[in-house]
């Protein structure tokens, strides 16, 4: 709650370029916007020291979400990324989904309150089958309905090789085993029958 603007985010990005000791950074509840998020993401593409980053409630939008996704493709140090209340939308979720297929260090991703919807959930479900490191995914309050939840379940089943009533084929040889053990869907209008 320091009212750090996009200009402050750019200054923080400059500091992270030379960072040798900071492992955890919370910039939650500020005003970074897409420009600040893009600056930090660009820095983290080449700076691999930071382990935990919280960008919650910064109005980074789809452009900031996409920038963070691009960062995750090459960053080999972030293990936890919080981006709640940023309205990354379906576009940001799709970009993050594609990044998760390549990232092998992120363990926790918080995307609650981001207007991801069913389409975003579908993209994220597809990435769960390919990602072998993500253990916790927060998708609370994203207007995900039954079809989006089914996509997530399908991705989990494909990633673990478990076959169920959804009719999922076993995991192909050589694919990564999904390690997700926490999926938060609170506040989404999902039928309880899907989660039993």
Structure write-up:
This protein has 196 residues and is an alpha/beta fold. Helix content is 39%, strand content 9%. It is built from six helices and six strands, in the order αβαβαβαβαβαβ. The chain has helices at 6-17, 33-44, 61-74, 89-100, 117-128, 146-160; strands at residues 24-26, 52-54, 80-82, 108-110, 136-138, 182-184. It has a six-stranded parallel sheet, with no helix packed on it. The chain is globular, with a radius of gyration of 16 Å. The N and C termini lie far apart (39 Å).
Descriptive key words:
6-stranded parallel β-sheet, alpha/beta, 196 residues, 9% strand
- Major sheet: order of its strands? 1-2-3-4-5-6
Radius of gyration (CA) equals 16 Å
Order of SSEs = HEHEHEHEHEHE
Beta-strand proportion? 5-15%
Low-confidence stretches: 163-171
- Gross geometry: globular
How much is the average pLDDT? Answer: 91
Question: Largest sheet, if any?
Answer: 6 strands, parallel
Distance between the termini: 39 Å
Range of helix content: 25-40%
Helical stretch count? 6
Class computed from helices, strands and strand pairing: alpha/beta
Question: What is the strand tally?
Answer: 6
Secondary-structure blueprint of this entry?
Elements: H1 6-17, E1 24-26, H2 33-44, E2 52-54, H3 61-74, E3 80-82, H4 89-100, E4 108-110, H5 117-128, E5 136-138, H6 146-160, E6 182-184
Parallel strand pairs: 1-2, 2-3, 3-4, 4-5, 5-6
Helix pairs in contact: 1-2, 2-3, 3-4, 4-5, 5-6
Offer a quick outline of the entry.
The chain has helices spanning about 5-15, 35-45, 60-75, 90-100, 115-130, 145-160; strands at about 25, 50-55, 80, 110, 135-140, 180-185. With about 200 residues, it is an alpha/beta fold.
